[in-house]
Amino acid sequence: METKENKKQNIFLKTIPYFDKYGILLLLFLMIAVLHFLQPEVFLSWRNVTNVFKQISWQSMLALGVFIVIVTAGIDLSVGSIMMLSLMVLAITSKAGAAWYIVIIIPIIMGALCGMINGLGITILRMPHPFIMTLGTLYIFRGTGNLISGGVPISGFTEEVRLLGNGRIDLTWLGLEESQYLPVSVVLIAVVFFLMWAFLNHTRTGKWIYAIGGNPNAARAAGINVNRILVIVYSLCGLLAGFGALILAGRADSGYPNAGLNAELDAIAACIIGGASFFGGRGTVLGVFVGVMIMGILRNGLNLMDVSSFWQQVLIGAIIVIAVYIDVLRKDLGTRH
Amino acid sequence: MSFSNKIILEAKGVSKYFGTITALEDVNLTIKEGECLGVVGDNGAGKSTFMKVLSGLYKPSKGALYFNGNKEVLESPRDSQNLGLEMVYQDLALAGNLPIGENIFLGREPTKKLGFLKLLDYKKIKEMSEAHLDKLKIHVKSADQKVEELSGGQRQAIAIARATAFNSKLVIMDEPTAALAIKEVGKVLDLINSLKKMGVSVIIISHRMDDIFAVCDRVMALFQGTNFAESELSKTSRDEVIGWIMGKK
Lengths: 337, 249
Fold this sequence. Notes:
The complex is a heterodimer of chains A (337) and B (249).
Chain A: H1 2-38, H2 46-71, H3 79-95, H4 100-123, H5 130-149, E1 154-155, H6 159-166, E2 168-169, E3 182-183, H7 184-202, H8 204-214, H9 216-221, H10 226-252, E4 254-255, H11 263-273, H12 285-304, H13 309-335
Chain B: E1 7-18, E2 21-32, E3 36-40, H1 47-55, E4 62-67, E5 70-72, H2 77-82, E6 85-88, H3 100-104, E7 111-114, E8 117-120, H4 122-135, H5 152-164, E9 170-174, H6 182-197, E10 201-205, H7 209-215, E11 218-223, E12 226-232, H8 238-245
Parallel strand pairs in B: 3-10, 3-11, 6-9, 9-10
Antiparallel strand pairs in B: 1-2, 1-4, 4-5, 7-8, 11-12
Helix pairs in contact in B: 5-6
């Protein structure tokens, strides 16, 4: 009797880590099912699905960047501004007639540099919390972006520059119709998320990022150069925001002053919905992807049903609270054995 | 006594000043292979400062350290680790969100090559940590278990396992039993005894006479930053050692 009971409990305990990792997927599938039921004609159509992916393409880059920062128990409020500044630099370089490969590489370098400034500020200037440094640079970077562009939109980029954000991969050779193409940005999301997953889970630096989030003193005692890793993390976050700028340049065909306004909050929300913890050391790349998808699908679904954007705000806020509450319940479950 | 006569660490005339404050003045220490030395003293006697000097976290203002008879200048804890000295910190210095194995190898993870990439070798981490835990008779469900799921005693055991995973010759433990439930204290003391049998020297800083008298071979007392008294354990008593802590001989 007892062994049977034990076995049952063992199976229960063994499923907890999986629920821990993949539980949030259930919420995503549930939302997809509900929206498919409400909008059976449109929601899962090729056109709409690719649309969702195109819409989340640049947000997913910001969210992934903010995620690795959150893993170290930090925060980056400046990603929206980094993206805007990188976009403006891209637009100015393009306007100046630089070759397309320079126009493509420049926002990425710009983003990484901005991130490095954040990282160095937090470590060398010993800011009491990353919140303060990145709150400062939120204003500094956006202000700089407006200064260099004069605060007006700069439009019109070449085909090569727009490829990542607007490119299409033809699938007619698979027997699909011409309208059923694969956006380049979908491939980009897949590649970047895979690389980040591999980096975080299969390299020493990635493991150290989680260790710093778990206990920075332990990391230091283990001989890990915590400050160096933090600078790398914030630089990577900035680099991803630069990627976001490149994608947005392709989608919008314009550098505009309001680009990425409040985008840092969406990015943080996606991480939190996806199960990352503000206390650091917790969360998965898959979780971030699901978090971004949940927000994207919610917006898309509500648009399809013609719900006002004011309601969208209310609902996204509610989802954040519900997702974290589910997490709290799960933790209760995990410790009650 | 099972230890040999080989002196593995000697500190000669160590002084440490922080501005005008004298934390340590002319402190000496020797420890032999496989020996367990208890260091006692009141709060502020300089125990922790002294241990930080030994581990390379602080540089001594005066005096020198000799590892296996060679004078060494330590620039960081990495240097002392390379000489075979490991510290077990009072706050344990473990990352709760990582599994046991990854904590043991934190900062020194084995990797395997995939083309030009160096990837973590999880299989090796698991195998090596389980073998090491077996050697120390530390029993956990699996090396994949997260440290935050362990009890205080198990965590202390993992911290000690971590300190001894890389052929260390000397382990310094700062209050290894202070945060533990009474029934777990015995397990940690057993672990210290098995380290001694393996020829590892141990320095224990502790307030608990029970611990000192259960595992140490020798005890030394610091008082106001100086050597106050020292004795073979068999030639002293609890009351005498408690007297030393309070500055009475």
